[in-house]
# Entry
Amino acid sequence: MQHLRRRSVQDGLFVLAAGIALLIYSLYEMTHARVKASWIMSPYLFPSVLGGLGTLLGMILLTGALRKAREDAPAPVRMRDLLVILGLSVLYNLALAPLGFIAATLLYLLVACALFGVRRPQVLLPVSILTPLALYLIFKIGLGVRLP
Amino acid sequence: MQTISGILPLMLSPRFILFVLLGSVSGLFVGAIPGLSVSMATALLVSITYTWSTGDALATIMGVYVVGVFSGALSAILVNIPGAPSSVVTTLDGYPMAKRGDAYKALSYATVYSFVGSVFGLVVMAVLARPITNIAIRFQPMDYFLLALFGLSTVGGLTSSNYAKGLFAALIGIFFSLIGLDPIMGNPRLTFGIQELKAGISTVPALVGLFGFSEVLSTVASGLRDGEVSGISQQHIPLRTLLRELPRSLWYCTIGTFVGALPGAGGPVASFLAYGQAKRLVRNPSRPFGEGAYEGIVASESANNACIGGALIPMLTMAIPGDAVTAIILSVFYVHGLKPGPTFMKMDIVHFYEILAAGLWGCIFLLLLGLLIAPRISRVINIPKRILMPVVVVLCVIGAYACNRRPFDVVLMFFFGILGYLMRRRGFPTAPVTLGLVLGSMMDSNFRRSISLASTSPTPLVTLFGRPATIILLVLTLMTLLSNIPAVQRLLRRRGN
# Structure
């Protein structure tokens, strides 16, 4: 039960910390601004209000979490698949400039689909080859959209 | 009369109709395929259509919006997975009907009453937009600030079971909207020394990340399982039978339009409220509710589609979006240099007609596509997610990059995608982030303007809150905030008992 309640406490602490951090940062910027302005016109007036509200919400969340008897367990995460899509998406973004849109997308789709369990070449190859070509034709040629 | 003569040339323009059709067909597939959403599609369309003429862009986006909201019902009925959050209620009776072999009947009811709901909402928008504009034109900076605050306080409660989490999500959106050069003083703000952030957080990559990439991450993390599609056998349903629910549907449409017009509320809330009403109003349903009563589909689909017109009213007249999709449509306006708000109906009336005409054509296409094409696309709905998700990532990258052609925007898209995923995982809703992102900058400047005006007045409090509209908005906001405090809720329940 303690373990289950921990997530809510963590959420409350996070919101509280974020609120306090924004409040302190905004107040510091208001008082140490290079271009002096009245506090009313300071660009950091509204962020400091947000920081204050965030702090208040953090306290409310934390109080609620400490009072709560239990909470639902989170759904299990397929960590391997999540890391695969995250890692591949970053690599794909990095590969776009040197390889160009079509080659990078082809490689990305080939690897991503294969790692997600698409095994049959008669599905894997057409998807990986035809999708970038179709997207290029639709977006670049058809709609005049600049591709990365 | 003026409105009819305004939309007539557009209703007869083949080019205009073609763009609405393009959007409608896209909306049919996007809304129907679980894992793709109308918000995601409109966010992507902002970047694709920014080089187009405003009319073509609005025609396409309205087509996607109107048909996309309806087509969420297809997968809700056939696969038991709602294609859009507003179709969740449709699954309750739609899927049991499909399992019983009445998928075609369920689809027919969903189509006809989505059409009724969409037309109702758009007609209300056409009638009410001008009077609301006349009220909005008298609004002062504090009124705008409070209106936006009211919207955010509403959405915080409607999108999450934990009100504080909903409000914090809205604060996150406002925080990101404040990054960049301060609009009043011109100083860099919250940029933390990062040069690229001086231009601010572009809405499009943020929205594509929040709705597109985070959806991919959530789907992948929960396992790439595909639903089982029910078969469809064509049945003849007499029009008289179909239209028997029309009087009740008009009541659900009224609920939907009203809920849609509340800033922050939207289709999911409207369909739940209408479903509750249906349970109360229909004494002898065809089947018990939740076990395949077509009356449940009528309620849900009438209400969630009526939201479209309702959500567009505050967006056009006050630049306050009614839901996530209208928040994205608002960014289309800004990308095209338009200024929605009280002057919109005078300065840009043509674009109002374009939205209305495109919406009405969207309704016609909804009816045609829903009755003729939808029953035949059940195979497409079931594209394996292991293929679909990597393709969606590619679309997100294109969408994030296309608008400003900045590689940094792709990085931002990934950041917001991960943020959206983590928020969902921890029970923080993402819809308030969108509204905060769109409204934050406006709230900041109006807040500071009103404080500045009040500081020079001998009676600052009267200057700030002394007008009837301000008092009404302040009371509404405070009531919303108070009614979401658990202790107040318990007290009200005890009083009620």
User: Anything to note?
Assistant: The first helix of chain B runs from residue 2 to 11. The first strand of chain B starts at residue 180 and ends at 181.
